[in-house]
Amino acid sequence: MSTHFQREIENLKKKTLAVSAIVEENIARAIAAVIKRDAELAQQVVDSDEEIDQMEVEVEEDCLKILALHQPVAIDLRFVVAVLKINNDLERMADLAVNIARRAAYLATFPKPDIPLDIEVMARKTQAMVKHSLDSLVQEDAMLARQVCASDNEVDQLNREMHVRIQQYIRTHPDHVERLIHLLSVSRHLERIADLTTNVAEDVIYTVEGEIVRHRTLAYG
Amino acid sequence: MYRSRLLWKLYAGYVGLLVLLTAIVGLVVPQRLERDALQETRSALEAKAVLLRGIVAPALESSGEADLQPRLRRLGSAIGTRLTVIRRDGTVVADSEEDAFRMDNHADRPEIQAARAHGIGEATRWSQTLGAQVMYLAFPVRQHDELSGYVRTAVPLTAVVARLAYLRTMIAVGAGGAAVVGFGLSFVLVQRVMRPLTSLTAMAESIAAGPYDQVVRTRAPGEIATLARAFNRMAYHLRERMTTITREHSQLLAILGSMVEGVVAVNHEERVIHMNEAAGTILHVVPQESLGRRLWEVTRVRAVVDTVASTLREAHETSSEARMVVESRDQVVNIHASPWWNDTGETAGAVVVLHDVTELRHLENVRRDFVANVSHELKTPITTIQGFVETLQDGALDDRDQAKHFLAIIARHVERLKAIIEDLLSLSRLEQGPEAAELSRTETKLADVLQAAIQVCMPTAAPREVTIISSCEATLRVRISAPLLEQALVNLLDNAIHCSKPGRRVWLEATQGGSEVAICVRDQGTGIPQEHVPRLFERFYRVDTWRSRDHGGTGLGLAIVKHIAQAHGGRVSVESTVGLGSTFTLHLPTD
Question: B544 and A111: CB-CB below 8 Å?
Fold first, then answer.
């Protein structure tokens, strides 16, 4: 294996991690913007999405270049393919972060609602899944990736609970209906982000073990 | 030692030499002996042949051959040699062992042919009859230059061969024995040489594994002893140097380890070559697990990775400040990276220093907010006062009722200004420490203080239909400054009353538990959201910033309460649930 090829793989890894860092940061900022009702923070997220889109294109081009020039095999091929897919998922996560940020900007224009609706638990869980899925990518840790897949159930559950409670509150506090609907959107977006992290985790398992585990019903954890 | 290849090489050399010499001796000597023996036999045959010729020549000429046979027979047995006389044409005239007429023509015998050609003929053949090698020697017989016949002598070589075989055996045994002795001696010799070399090697290996207090001793000859001594000296110096290096390294690690700032060193490949504990804490990674890995694998904090990358790329210092959320902790970290160079002047890596400035920035924010708030708080009443004064100056003074009304408003705002300034002053006095606050503590009945505070607040509570309920053990006495404590309780009660809806209650309770007295003010008001709690006791901090300030208050009440508590060596805490109410507790230690 030539060192030029090795270096290109390293660079690909580095770039993917750089993108993932920004995406992780944006998700954190978007959630903070929702919780603290900080419109400025929300705007930062929206503004930085363009950079992410550009980097996503660069990563994809690098992958195609590697495939064309070096025709990698075995684990290297799996890695490049996984990066292509993870890159996609990261970009979608970034878009969801932008959506959340937009909701945050809207919610910031309202005073704090009297209703105790705590989206923080679900947000923290989602952030943890994002972090663990990226950690498993860096460390090539299939076990950690499997844990991420297992955590998705919890987030789904929290999302369903949020739906139920918001419906209740819409009935009892009809004047808060816009805010509640936006919060509902935030919850849905978080659930989508969690799903995307399981995709990333599955791609990591594929790279490390050579097995495609998506669509398998869970014997995880 | 016996695994040493040198030992076996040396020994093999000796053995080879011995084997070679023995082989030479064992092969060459017998060969020489054989040649000499044969030569001897040949000479003897020759001499006998010459004599035979002298005897036979006249007989051949005179054809008196008939009596040759018995004469040859006698002679042959006397000298132990076979004698043969042959005519010119090859027929055998007489033979000392066989009947002549029974022998076939010898003209074609090689010794005869050679004799005819060269004057002498010799051959060695296997004789079927005798069962041995026989040597023949033939001379021609000439009479007056004319060939008349041949004489031939022959003798079997059995004796010679047997003697030679015996000699060969002797030589072989002797040389072999000498060789074996040689093998033994040379082995001992080689061992003597190898022993110190082996121990030197062992010592070198143990030094390589870790400096050892070993010394090589040897009785070997001169050069090896010198080598051993040089070795011992080298081992000693090595030990010294290792100790120094280890000590300096430990010191360096200790210094780095006890720094508050985080230090990360990377090489030109961006691999972590060192990370101290503080850096691990700031970045939320384990230093030991990060060694040798790429920086961008270890941490995903973009500011750190980018700063280091730009330092390496541009070979000069880079600083940045970044806000990072690591494990849901919001930190502000100052990042400073500088490149370091190796001996050849190339960029060998970068050193990053991470400084957690979260507290610093937080305090700056607090200060900024405070200044902004103070300006606002002071400006608002002053603006109002100014407005009314201008109105009065513009002519409202003429309308006495209006003027009175306006002056009342001005007076109220002046009072407010006064209250703010007084609170600020008492706060700054409290902050300067218990002495400056003229804190004189005396043993006081707590119940009295509680009652006094309630009295002060009754005018506020009554119109709002808020009931204050107090409970305190009558005998409870604490060393406190009564005026200050009263002020703190008034502030807390005031807040409680203002956030309670009509008909609600406020509890004021004092209890003693262990080494402290806890005084709680509990209300059934709106409660305080969790995110405001850490900043609640800051000066001018308000929970709902857009609500109007007209339910009064300077915004300093809780800050004063906190400082009063601290001046008594205690603290204040709050528990609150949104929608249910809040409980503020003063914890005062009982000396």
Answer: yes
